[in-house]
Amino acid sequence: MAKQRMLQFVTVERDMPEKRAADQRNQDFNEIYAEYAEQKAAEQAGRCSQCGVPYCQSHCPLHNNIPDWLRLTAEGRLEEAYQLSQATNTFPEICGRICPQDRLCEGNCVIEQSGHGTVTIGAVEKYITDTAFEKGWVQPIAPKVEREESVAIIGAGPGGLAAADMLRRQGVQVTVYDRYDRSGGLMIYGIPGFKLEKDIVMRRNQQLEKGGVKFELNCNVGEDITFEDIRAKHDVVLIATGVYKTRDLQGPGSGAKGIVRAIDYLTASNKVSFGDTVPEYDSGELNAEGKRVVVIGGGDTAMDCVRTAVRQGAKSVKCLYRRDRANMPGSQREVQNAEEEGVEFVWLTAPKGFAGDTVESVLISKMRLGQPDATGRQTPELIEGADYAEDADLVVKALGFEPEDLPALWDQPELEVTRWGTVKTDFRTHETNLDGVYAVGDIVRGASLVVWAIRDGREAAQAILDRFNTAVTAVAAE
Question: Rounded to two decimals, what is the model's pTM?
Fold first, then answer.
């Protein structure tokens, strides 16, 4: 009788990959979790209950075939597990590292609801694809037939690269334009190495390049090339720029030196990790070493900033958030990691002003939670007379991101945007009001998750392929 590989959750406890001790990992920017060994990955995958209605799959934006590749992993059929994982997700090894699994697949695991501890879906997903790269199962894109159609993708983040991958596999000619000197968007310069080591992103970039995707880097659309020129050179344009405009702080002294944007702070740190020369880092402007750091915000970007400051050798690191822990939008796993590494969270607080031409302190207002708003979250309310000052040498604004004004930047006043400034698209095809122009990811959704950008990119790529195939069929019928 064959050994039962699945339904092991009753006898096998949840066991995450080993996490490096906080006093060791906060000294470098390497990933904090070790890799599963093959036996351990199979054991943990075997905890899956193979339930009839897989909530893990339905709560994944990509609807990954999670129960199926968990079963294949438990059975030792790793190459098949990789192929199945790759079928729905362009970058499973990246999602396995940075997705907030506690809010998505793992947070909705059936055995978690029954008190047995969720399957470690993200860690197994990461293991499958890392193994696939090691074994040589991940091959460069090799289209069976080259097509004449050409697509320009503006933005080399997860949405743009996911679309590039799908289009190139069908033989479409793809050129990716990006303002930065490396491809990857926030995966390269926004997310720190302790969550996503950069060679993981670079090897995907190399796979795309070897597969025939062309990259035009250090290319700022609207300055180095016009949007109209791009449209003229290509059959279709896909906008995947993301959102990079930082929500600003209000209050007296908010323009003081020493108050910096999260994106600038994280980009500088990641560039230094690449070995680049960054004058703003060397001067101390974007370097937390020896400083009392205050990060304002409660999302995953704020978590990236506080944990980066710890690794740069900050004297102290505090995170101000206007709601409580239960209402924090960031991953609870990331909050726990930050606390272990020495970050102090100051809940129910908001900045009221700043002292010093070069920031010396933050005037803080204490808050309480009132009635729920339209989204169901309790609204923070000011507690009168409870202000106090917090000493600070560096303040990082991590209040979220807003879209840039693309119609103005690109001289495209006819491009429709929403009242929030995001690009307006057809929710089925991702096409804008401009013929042959599509848009995906954060520039449509607002600041969101990498996994949603990947989903958008894949859906838009399919819509673009349908457009091309319809045109070919129409020509053949004439």
Answer: 0.94
